[in-house]
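Session log. Operator J.P. requested a structure for one protein chain; no other inputs attached. Running the standard single-chain path with token output.
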Amino acid sequence: MTDTAHAFLPAQEDLALISVAEAARCTRGQTGSPLAGWVSFRPLWDDVVRTDPDLFA
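Structure written below.
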């Protein structure tokens, strides 16, 4: 790794390990519910379907 890359990486002792379950709880708390995810994704989905209708054929 170059010296430049090392400058942007945090020191090893600064990293905190978290469990998968803890990460899942945190994500659930930030996103809310499955409906919240769909509401955020829906405009993108509609745009893709409108601009590239043959993409899913």
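Operator note: The mean pLDDT is 76.
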